[in-house]
Structure formats: structure tokens, C-alpha cells
Amino acid sequence: MDTKTKIVKNILLVEDDTGDVELTLAALEEHHLADKIEVVNNGTEVLDYLYRRGKFKDRAAGNPILVLLDLKMPKVSGLEVLKIIKADEQLKLIPVVVLSSSRERPDVVQCYQHGVNAYVLKAVDYGEFVESVKQLGIFWTAVNEPPPNTWCAAPGPVPVPEQENDLNGIPAPYPASGG
Fold first, then answer.
1. pLDDT truncated to tens, each residue of the chain (179 aa)?
2. CA distance linking residue 29 with residue 27, whole number of Å
3. What CATH fold (topology level) applies to the domain 10-150?
4. The whole model's pTM is what?
5. Nearest 5°: phi and psi at 37?
6. How many CA atoms within 13 Å lie on the side-chain side of 116?
7. Are 65 and 11 contacting, i.e. CB atoms less than 8 angstroms apart?
8. Among 15, 19, 121, 135, fewest CB within 10 Å belongs to which?
9. CA–CA gap between residue 178 and residue 140 (Å, rounded)
10. What's the first-to-final CA gap in the chain, in angstroms?
């Protein structure tokens, strides 16, 4: 029996276009790239989800291992959401990948200036779009080691590395007591 704690791999998809949601979900689910994919449709909902408020106040503890973020959204833009995530000590280590149809230089530059982990253009072709999402999913859920603040064990408590001896030998950005 494996004594290691299984890390639950949850992805938060932030997209207001139902067609893009369906394609993204199909690509991620076809390749079993996440344990759970939560979908929100605007910037206000993603912030409510991350801060566990509103309709998400009772969601399980833990952060997603990846946020796939549309840039052009109603209520609060993807750029504003990115700024909030990367400015918050509790959220800033969550990898954020912008999925956008915008190739505008200012959009790309601003996203990188505010800490986006990757900026991916949405392919117009169905096959290319699905392949792009598959590759993103493989990297962020199978190849990349997620930051410890996104760990959510199943079942049992959230594993918290020691303050000065986490998995990479880098001091953890939270108290060793888990609080």
C-alpha cells in the first residue's frame, strides 16, 4: 500500500464563452488531467471562489493547482483578477495561465508584468484548441510540481511542509502549524 498522500488536482477554469468552456472541459476530461474542474463565468465569481465567499463559502479548503483565466470577461477583467491573485500572499503561488484570443502586445505585456505564469492564445481551429489545452493540462497537472499552498489531500488533512524544510528546501510561505 502506498503511504504517500495523494494530492487532489483541481483546476479552476474562468471562462465566459460557453463554447470555449465545453472545448476546454472536453480536452481536460478526455485526458483525465484533473480530479475536479470548477468552472466560473466571470471575474467576480473567480474571486468569490478563491476567497471562499458567496456561493463558494462552503467549498472544500485548498486552492486549485491551476487557474485557466480568460482575459476579456464581464464584471471584473481577467487582468484585474490576475493582479489580485498575484498581490495576495495566500494566493500568489497559484499558477495562472491566461487563455485569450487577444494577441495585442499590451495585453500580453501587462499579464507578464503582473505575474502570469503563461499566456496562451486560443486557437481558432478546434483540433488545435483541444491540443493546446491538452498540452497545458499535461504540463500543469502531470509534469509541474504544484506549490504547497495548492495541496489538498484526499482523504485527510492538507499536508503542510515544515517551515524550513519543504519539498524544495525553500522556506514555506506560511506558518508550520498550518494556520
1. 444 555 667 889 999 999 889 888 888 887 777 778 899 999 999 999 999 999 999 998 889 989 999 999 888 999 999 999 999 999 999 999 998 888 899 999 999 999 999 898 886 676 777 777 777 777 766 666 766 654 444 444 433 333 333 333 333 333 333 33
2. 6
3. Rossmann fold (3.40.50)
4. 0.73
5. -125, 115
6. 23
7. yes
8. 19
9. 25
10. 30
